[in-house]
Specification:
Blueprint (H helix, E strand, L loop, with lengths): L2 H12 L19 H10 L2 H9 L6 H14 L15 E6 L6 H4 L7 E6 L6 H16 L9 E7 L11 H7 L14 H14 L8 E7 L6 E9 L7
Parallel strand pairs: 1-2, 1-3, 3-4
Antiparallel strand pairs: 4-5
Helix pairs in contact: 1-2, 1-3
The structure holds zinc ion.
Length: about 240
């Protein structure tokens, strides 16, 4: 978060009508003390003070995000010259969990990789269909998902999908009977990446030229472990 935005949120919260409860998305319902509130306010930049209190309201999430977007558009990270084909020739299948954003944990630059996220980062029929569609998009854009492309399956510890391991909706999501969920290693990310890579190998919808890897991210350490080392998806390429 840009420093000016962070400070704007905090100082707004400190001087809201309720002096005991922050009213911003940044610190919702967080009790604050009066001395702390004044201390932070005086450390805030003068322009931030005028910006936040002239409007007499906390910044909304959209306010914050559009400000960040403006900062991005003005920064060197943005380039209008980026290509639709990822510069790393890499696709990542990962979980929607906000702690496990591949762009963050791999420090990706814009345009470097395609990231597909669903619940658990799992290879489901919908995942395979999307991979197939992306292959068509690449071809129509003058590229080809052939040799030199990487496909990473990224699972993680403490995944929310663990709570769904007995749910009929999850079985339907995977296209398996309820009793088939046990074979998908829902609660074991080290095993589930291997299960999903096997599913990729078995699907004719995915290019056999991919160099496929299975990784597990530990939410307690921030580190990624390679559980399934990079290897061609299939020995006989189909791209
Ligand atoms: Zn997850």
């Amino acid at each position: 978060m840009a420093p000016d935005v962070r400070e704007a949120i905090c100082s707004c919260a400190h001087f809201s009508r309720s002096m005991h409860t922050a009213e911003s998305p940044h610190s919702l319902r967080r009790p604050i003390s009066l001395p702390l509130a004044f201390g932070r306010a005086f450390r805030s930049h003068r322009s931030v003070w005028h910006f936040t209190h002239r409007r007499d309201r906390a910044m909304s999430v959209i306010d914050i995000l559009t400000q960040r977007n403006q900062a991005f558009a003005d920064s060197s990270r943005f380039s209008a010259e980026l290509k639709i084909i990822p510069s790393m020739k890499t696709m990542i299948v990962g979980c929607v969990d906000p702690r496990v954003d591949p762009a963050e944990i791999f420090q990706l630059e814009p345009g470097e990789a395609v990231v597909y996220r669903n619940v658990g980062g799992r290879v489901t029929p919908a995942t395979l269909e999307t991979l197939s569609m992306l292959r068509i998009v690449a071809r129509s854009s003058g590229g080809n998902m052939g040799p030199g492309w990487n496909l990473l399956v990224l699972h993680h510890t403490d995944c929310g999908i663990n709570c769904l391991r007995h749910e009929p909706e999850l079985a339907q999501h995977f296209g398996v009977p309820l009793e088939g969920l046990d074979s998908l290693a829902i609660t074991d990310p080290r095993t589930s990446v291997a299960v999903d890579i096997a599913a990729l190998r078995a699907s004719p919808l995915v290019s056999g030229d991919f160099l496929v890897s299975g990784l597990v991210y530990d939410v307690a350490t921030g580190k990624v472990e390679t559980v399934v080392p990079p290897a061609p998806l299939r020995t006989e390429a189909t791209a």
